[in-house]
Amino acid sequence: MCPCCCKHPNATSYDVTDKVEFTKLPTPAAIVDPPKPKPENGEAKETDGNDTYFKLCENMTLSLASNLIFTPLLLEGKLSVCSVDLLSSKAGQNRQEHHTDLYHGDELILRRGQTFQIEVELNRPFSTDTDKLYLELKTDSFKSNRWTHVIIPLVKHLEDERWEAKIVEQNGNKIKLSINSPANAVIGLYELTVTTSSLKGDATTTYTSSKNIVMLFNPWCEEDSVFLDNEEERKEYVLNDTGRIYYGTEKQIGARTWNFGQFHEGILEACLFIMEKSEMPPSGRGDPVNVVRVISAMINAQDDYGVLVGNWSGDYSDGVSPTAWSSSVEILRKYHSTNGTPVSYGQCWVFSGITTTVLRCLGIPSRSVTNFQSAHDTDVSLTTDVYLNENLEPIDYLNRDSVWNFHVWNDCWMARPDLPPGNGGWQAVDATPQETSQGTFRCGPASVNAIRSGHVYLKHDTPFVFAEVNSDKIYWQRNLDGTFKQIYSEKKAVGHCISTKAVGSDKRADITSLYKHEEGTEEERIAVETASRYGSKPDVYSTPVAEDVSVEVKVDGEGPRVGADAQLKILVKNLSSQPRQATIHSQVAVMYYTGVLKGTIKKEQMPVELSPNEEKTIDWVLTYQQYQSQLVDQAAFMLTLCGRVTETKQVLANQTTFRLRTPDITITPIGDAVVGKEMAAKITFTNPLPSTLKGVVFRVEGLGLQEGHEVVVGDVGAHSKVTLTEHFIPSQPGPRKLVASLDCEQLSQVHGVADIVVLEQ
């Protein structure tokens, strides 16, 4: 058989007998086997049956005429891949252009809707005339038989919004490919395979890269539904790995630093693990609405073995107190390393901090949001209902609605093509397990614009969030026949000082106006009444109540401190031209920040006589001795005032929450902050109580400064001062934050932060 009919498997060039040239022959080259591709960073495979074609010439001896030269006739060796370089270095073009250079490790981490490059080394030069090449991507969940399979063809010209690849550079056996991904691509982990063959489709080989590709949402891409058209906001809501979470009461707003750590080692892997554990079909992972809804369920462990166990009992002996956490990193890494064992314990700010970490890590702009005086509506009435007996005393078993001192959830940014126009932008999502949504403890995403307008019929869970920020507090009194009548409506009771960290600074930004119109305006009343028509008590606003006497509570300055007497002022105003008399009943109860009362610790009655247009101030005091043994998490109280005006029978009602301020931890850096050079920080704390703190533990952490760890101090005497010195070596340049928190039975929400600018070595 002549060589023109069959490729010889062992020859580097081929001779033919139908062309004769009289020339001096070179020395014949030795016939050797070409080297097979080595799986340097992957695996090369041949498909079944390919060897048959090449074995036709085995065991043949070719007699070559000494005066003939045989020239090639398009019979090159079979094309195969030797290696694939994903160009995944943090300092490389891909990671820099895709804003993923901050993630730990050298994986190829990409954002969808944006071009990226890879290099492929072949066993010989690629020819467009004879060779065919295409790429395949499979989501990592293909191992569970639920996966997405993408074929990426080789084209001459790239077009947007589709998977395509183009050769942009060829140098010998190496080619560089530029690859497009659509802006709605499924996010997650992909396995890459390169397939080569002849144009006829035979002689096929495949090569699977040993490194995977991670695809994320892309807030920099206009076609992506999470696109955010402001670079400073993208830096804050996607790239900033630290933040501030607010707590306390509207009159005494506290703030603590939280390390989100979305770029920290192991966090991306943990976030992808959460996605896999949710068993969300890969086909739904391209839609941020679906992803956020799943994440809000998976962050809590209530019904799906999610990340964090909620605990409001005050007993955290078999876990970590919620107030002791100051970072998402330890929680997420622990959940991942234990193959999905829920971590103990968390409350709303911890759920929110973790949600911010996961969403930012996946590429969805997000922020932690605190609502002060946050209502918890349990019966979808869209009102916060307070039931009183015939003597104006609370009926505890009926009062299931509550108002939390504060509640922390999240905003995330995305378009909402599933809703009418105008409802995109910020969406509220809440991972704290409060009420079920479609059978699962989750909440959102709910359009903030829809909440503001009272359009509670729009998904997801808009009625619940509306009630949290803008429900009226309705007081009902029981009649002698057992029925109830509405006796008072408090229209400004909930949804105050809605707060988040400001863009580019550690200041607090008040975003109440995004969630509701200004209190008392016609727009705000229309929104409330619109929402109520879709609730379980649509006729609640049919009868207005006249008012000419008002009562309110004021807190001076920053408010009372733990360890001292709490002093408040009760202001009673007569707005009429006639004298008024009333008896005000007051009671104060220790309260968990969720609005659940532990118990009443003080009751009293205050007779009030008011001249026409008079304003009277009543001093109210709760002594340290009265509350010292009753404190719970957040050191919070609720003061309830109720009364009736003798002349008009008008009902007076007011509920005010206040907290006792805790001392800060002071952190003082010592020495120069330089990468690779040891420095120190002095941490000091003074016990504010006239009693001993038992079992004090400090937690210290700084992203790029040192790993989080515990420092066991033990007992701290009354009014005693504790000083610690931490030694560490900064590993990352730029502005960093060293955070410390204190955990003990008697005090919570004790923390401190130091800003440290680390220089390059």
TrEMBL record:
The keyword Cytoplasm is annotated on this UniProt entry: no
Annotated PROSITE patterns: TRANSGLUTAMINASES (PS00547)
Catalysis: reaction(s): L-glutaminyl-[protein] + L-lysyl-[protein] = [protein]-L-lysyl-N(6)-5-L-glutamyl-[protein] + NH4(+)
InterPro entries assigned: Ig-like_fold, Ig_E-set, Papain-like_cys_pep_sf, Transglutaminase, Transglutaminase-like, Transglutaminase-like_sf, Transglutaminase_animal, Transglutaminase_AS
Topology versus the membrane: Lipid-anchor
Alphabetically ordered keywords of this record: Acyltransferase, Calcium, Keratinization, Lipoprotein, Membrane, Metal-binding, Palmitate, Phosphoprotein, Transferase
Biased composition (Basic and acidic residues): 35-47
Enzyme Commission number(s) of this protein: 2.3.2.13
A molecular function (GO) term: protein-glutamine gamma-glutamyltransferase activity
Domain spans labelled Transglutaminase-like: 340-433
Pfam families: Transglut_C, Transglut_core, Transglut_N
Main localization (coarse): membrane
Family: Belongs to the transglutaminase superfamily. Transglutaminase family.
Function: Catalyzes the cross-linking of proteins and the conjugation of polyamines to proteins. Responsible for cross-linking epidermal proteins during formation of the stratum corneum. Involved in cell proliferation.
Name this polypeptide is given: Protein-glutamine gamma-glutamyltransferase K
